Every structure is written in C-alpha cells, then in structure tokens.
UniProtKB/TrEMBL annotation:
This is ITA2B protein. PANTHER family: INTEGRIN ALPHA (PTHR23220), INTEGRIN ALPHA-IIB (PTHR23220:SF73). Residues 3-76 form the Integrin alpha second immunoglobulin-like domain. Residues 83-163 form the Integrin alpha third immunoglobulin-like domain. SUPFAM superfamilies: Integrin domains. Its main location: membrane. It is a single-pass type I membrane protein. InterPro entries: Integrin_alpha_Ig-like_2, Integrin_alpha_Ig-like_3, Integrin_dom_sf. It comes from the Eukaryota. One of its GO terms (biological process) is integrin-mediated signaling pathway. It is found in: Membrane.
C-alpha cells in the first residue's frame, strides 16, 4: 500500500559481505510485498563484466524447507569521458615564402622557429581508467620536404611515451 524505508545493516559472515534488511513484523498471512534495493558497490575495477548477488528471504516465525534464494546478476559497465586538450607555443608561426633551412647545420635556429606542442589528457569520469593509449599523428613532411623536426618527447604524471622512429633524425 504505502512506501516505507527499510532499515538495513551491512555485516560480514564467513568472508561474505551480507546486508540484512528487516521488513517488519507481524505480517498477515498471504501478504505480498515489493522491495526495491539500491546497492552502492565500490572496487568494481576488477569485477569483470558482471556482479552477482544472492538474495534470500527468511522468516523468523516459520522455518521453511523451500528454497527462498535467488541469484541476480547485474552487468558492470565502466564509463569515463576522456578529454584531450592541446596548445602550441607560440600559437602561430609564419615563415617567409622563400625561406630555406640550412640542411647540414646542427644549430636549431637554422632549421626554423621552435614550436612546442603540449597535450593534456583528462579523465572527466565518472570512472577511473587504466591502460589508456593515445596515438598522436604529427605530419613531419609536406610535398617530400621536411615540415617539422621532431626533437623530443616528455611526459608527466606516470605516463609512458614511445617516440616515433626517426625522432630527431637530423640530429639537430
């Protein structure tokens, strides 16, 4: 008929987490009730594709030999929104139309203007993420000519980075 909040208490029995909810007493014979439970489960990173709950209904008044246990399997779906932000310093670079770099020079300034690209990958949640791979393609040649000299890569925050083949191939 009406809606009531249940009083539930978590506890551990035989290495299993148990939540005991008291529905109330006395109940009339033949009474039918509907119970909705909302459980918050943490540490699902290693749970796999689903979490299984075993629900059991017991009466303190009359022990029953009937199997009053049911297994419920709930699929686990992790959700995380990743955001990639990037900036270039300086934001714009203009070279003269007839500019040619000094091909054999080892001096950085003879090969053009230094531009630093900074990328930040943010997890906006709600779940945590592991094993994320970001592939970043950078055009190094245009029309058979060198467009960008990739000189180095660095990371922060426990991220590993694999440099492309030919990183600083000109040894500038």
């Amino acid at each position: 008929q009406g809606q009531e909040k249940l009083s539930c208490a978590p506890r551990k029995e035989n290495g299993t987490h148990v939540v005991l909810c008291e529905l109330g007493n006395p109940m009339k014979a033949g009474a039918q009730i509907t119970v909705e439970l909302e459980l918050s489960v943490s540490g699902l990173e290693d749970a796999g594709d689903a979490v299984t709950f075993q629900l059991q209904l017991q009466s303190k008044n009359s022990p029953s030999s009937a199997n009053t246990s049911v297994t419920v399997t709930v699929p686990v779906e992790a959700e995380a929104t990743m955001e990639l932000r990037g900036t270039s310093l300086p934001a714009t670079t203009v070279l003269p139309a007839e500019w040619h770099g000094a091909g054999d020079s080892q001096r950085l300034e003879d090969h053009g203007i230094r531009v630093e690209h900074v990328y930040q990958l943010h997890n906006k949640g709600p779940s945590t993420v592991t094993g994320v791979t970001l592939h970043l393609a950078v055009p190094t040649r245009l029309g058979g000519r060198i467009l960008l000299h990739l000189l180095g890569l660095s990371t922060e925050g426990g991220v590993t980075c694999t440099g492309p083949p030919g990183l600083d191939a000109e040894q500038v």
